[in-house]
């Protein structure tokens, strides 16, 4: 089979599409014939060699956590899924023709493989940071970097829970944020005052790692009311860095419910063939994403 991998840490050019042995499902796992793989910022952070304790790796390494596909192998002890089922979930080395998943759910009706690949890690992260920051119905949440995959999920999940969301993004994405139920604000010079005029901020999330931790603390008044998933220096300012996943099966189950009720939709901004994984990483690192980027296998 074909698999994207890298033998050394570095830029997108270290990614190679190579022949590899097919993986097999172990106990509690399934294998899928991959139809699409989600491209997440954590993928290129790992490729660069950033120290992410939740994702230790050995070189050479495959790439990718999220995938959608068709079940073709079921490990020992697995129940409730059959060969031929259409599923989406999280595993390892998903930029490949076959991948092993450790958490999965059946794809909701009407969802394409391309769309489904964009949900697993994104929804788990969104649910986790909303929980960790402690924001409740009737309160206001500020989301810095709101137009990407996690931001898109946060906005919709928060709205479904009765939370008001102010989202910052580039000028081109203001209407997109409105469409997801957020109060939009542009970043750039004067953004703190623009946000302050919109009302009291009860909690804040840093999803882009754009160097705004001090400003988020200023707006909330307390570093404990701020969570970052993108700035490894956040703990130096008393802000929690959230990088360890919670229960992915529970997150997938909640995602299925939200999607089925029409409360969650994350658009695919761009898809790439497997051979163009490096281009997908370049675009992901550039930011300004609206929704998700995925690889098509």
TrEMBL record:
It is found in: Cytoplasm. The lineage of its organism: Bacteria, Bacillati, Actinomycetota, Actinomycetes, Kitasatosporales. Gene3D superfamilies: Medium-chain alcohol dehydrogenases, catalytic domain (3.90.180.10), NAD(P)-binding Rossmann-like Domain (3.40.50.720). It comes from the Bacteria. This is NADP-dependent oxidoreductase. SUPFAM superfamilies: GroES-like, NAD(P)-binding Rossmann-fold domains. Homotetramer. InterPro entries: ADH-like_N, ER, GroES-like_sf, NAD(P)-bd_dom_sf, Quin_OxRdtase/zeta-crystal_CS, Zinc-ADH_QOR/CCCR. Keywords: Cytoplasm, NADP, RNA-binding. The keyword Zinc does not apply. It comes from Streptomyces endocoffeicus. The keyword Flavoprotein does not apply. Its main location: cytoplasm. PROSITE patterns: QOR_ZETA_CRYSTAL. Residues 10-295 form the Enoyl reductase (ER) domain.
């Amino acid at each position: 089979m074909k698999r994207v991998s890298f033998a050394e840490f570095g830029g997108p050019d270290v990614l190679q599409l190579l022949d590899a042995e097919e993986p097999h499902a172990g106990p509690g796992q399934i294998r899928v014939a991959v139809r699409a793989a989600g491209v997440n910022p954590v993928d290129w952070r790992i490729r660069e060699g950033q120290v992410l304790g939740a994702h230790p790796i050995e070189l050479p390494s495959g790439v990718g956590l999220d995938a959608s596909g068709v079940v073709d192998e079921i490990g020992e002890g697995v129940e409730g899924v059959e060969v031929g089922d259409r599923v989406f979930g999280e595993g390892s080395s998903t930029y490949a023709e076959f991948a092993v998943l450790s958490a999965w759910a059946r794809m909701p009706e009407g969802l394409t493989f391309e769309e489904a690949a964009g949900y697993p890690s994104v929804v788990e992260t969104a649910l986790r940071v909303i929980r960790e920051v402690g924001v409740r119905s009737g309160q206001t949440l500020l989301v810095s970097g709101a137009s990407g995959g996690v931001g898109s999920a946060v906005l919709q999940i928060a709205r479904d829970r009765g939370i008001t969301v102010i989202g910052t993004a580039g000028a081109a994405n203001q209407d997109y944020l409105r469409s997801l139920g957020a109060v939009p604000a542009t970043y750039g010079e004067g953004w703190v005052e623009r946000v302050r005029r919109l009302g009291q901020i009860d909690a804040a999330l840093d999803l882009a790692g754009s160097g705004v931790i001090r400003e988020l603390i200023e707006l909330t008044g307390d570093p404990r009311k701020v969570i970052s998933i993108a700035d490894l220096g956040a703990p130096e300012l008393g802000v929690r860095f959230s990088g360890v996943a919670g229960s992915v099966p529970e997150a997938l189950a909640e995602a299925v419910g939200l999607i089925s009720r029409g409360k969650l939709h994350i658009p695919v901004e761009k898809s790439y063939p497997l051979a163009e994984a490096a281009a997908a990483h370049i675009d992901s690192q550039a930011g300004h994403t609206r929704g998700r980027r995925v690889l098509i296998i």
